[in-house]
Amino acid sequence: VQLQASGGGLVQAGGSLRLSCAASGLTFSRHRMGWFRQAPGKEREFVAGINSSAGGPRNYADSVKGRFTISRDNAKNTVYLQMSSLKPEDTAVYYCAASERIIWSQLAFPNAWSYWGQGTQVTVSS
């Protein structure tokens, strides 16, 4: 299984970025997908999760609600994270994760996920 995250970069506060995570080696449409982030010196934290179907339920961390949107294209085996109104505190390495069997109530727990991508750096300047 490979999860390849991309789309990170340097952006000014208030700007936008779209992250992508291309999956291979798994039946993408059967996996719930998630995004996490980890800032220097901090633990990895949940950002957003989406059910296996593109139109299915989504879940967001309170810190990103209303600013970030997770979506997926099962035909392209890709999950996205559209980030808007970015703040300096959003600066982190962003990771995508996949799991076929994760329980919805455990989305926020990194240990509950089966597969991880390599991460993409997002830096928001003030």
Protein architecture, described:
Helices cover 0% and strands 48% of the residues. It has no helices and eleven strands. Strands 2, 4, 5, 6, 9, 10 and 11 form a seven-stranded mixed beta sheet that branches. The protein has a four-stranded antiparallel beta sheet with strand order 1-3-8-7, with no helix packed on it. A hairpin with a 4-residue loop joins strand 7 and strand 8 (78-83). The model has no long low-confidence stretch (mean pLDDT 97).
Task: Give the structure's gist in a few sentences.
This protein has strands at residues 2-6, 9-12, 17-24, 32-38, 45-50, 58-60, 68-73, 78-83, 92-99, 115-116, 120-125. The protein is mainly beta and 126 residues long.
Describe the structure using short key phrases.
11 strands, 126 residues, 4-stranded antiparallel sheet
What is the average per-residue confidence, as pLDDT, rounded to a whole number? 97
- Estimated radius of gyration: 13 Å
- So what's the overall shape? globular
DSSP strand content: over 45%
Structural class category: mainly beta
Determine the number of helices (DSSP H or I, runs of at least 4 residues).
Answer: 0
SSE order, one letter for each helix or strand: EEEEEEEEEEE
Gap between N and C termini, in Å? Answer: 37 Å
Poorly predicted runs: none
Question: Helical percent range?
Answer: under 10%
Strand elements, count: 11
Largest sheet: 7 strands, mixed
Oligomer: single chain
How is this fold's topology laid out?
Elements: E1 2-6, E2 9-12, E3 17-24, E4 32-38, E5 45-50, E6 58-60, E7 68-73, E8 78-83, E9 92-99, E10 115-116, E11 120-125
Parallel strand pairs: 2-11
Antiparallel strand pairs: 1-3, 3-8, 4-5, 4-9, 5-6, 7-8, 9-10, 9-11
